[in-house]
Design goal:
Elements: E1 6-13, H1 17-30, E2 34-41, E3 45-53, H2 57-66, E4 70-71, H3 73-83, E5 91-100
Parallel strand pairs: 1-5
Antiparallel strand pairs: 1-4, 2-3, 3-5
Helix pairs in contact: 1-2, 2-3
């Protein structure tokens, strides 16, 4: 497998959405990576954008699964291929998409009226 130029990680969880988001955020920080942005899609999905030094991808490969998040096989392959690379001076951007498996109704938010 060739080394990815951008990490596209995805996983799922049945854990509480807010608690899992906190755990994943902490795991990203513990790995030496940092969150650059995120997007919530109702209460079904979150997409977290992050940056990580290639030298720290190995730590990310350890800290993310420790949260209880079930990463896809493709995500695990990407983390392994970068971790085992010899490029230690570069950074990678990435996304982590988390799907929340639950039976709750969609999270509805009031949208304020826009004047005009």
């Amino acid at each position: 497998m060739t080394e990815p130029q951008f990490l596209r990680l995805d996983g799922f969880t049945k854990a509480d959405r807010i608690q899992m988001t906190d755990r994943v955020s902490e795991a990203i920080n513990q790995a030496g990576a940092w969150i650059t942005d995120f997007h919530l899609y109702s209460n079904l999905l979150i997409c977290i954008n992050f940056q990580v030094a290639i030298a720290d991808v190995g730590r990310l490969a350890i800290t993310l699964p420790e949260t209880g998040l079930h990463l896809s096989q493709e995500s695990l392959k990407q983390l392994t291929s970068v971790r085992d690379s010899t490029l230690n001076e570069k950074e990678l951007g990435g996304t982590l998409q988390i799907t929340f498996v639950h039976h709750e109704p969609d999270l509805l938010r009031d949208v304020p009226a826009v004047p005009g």
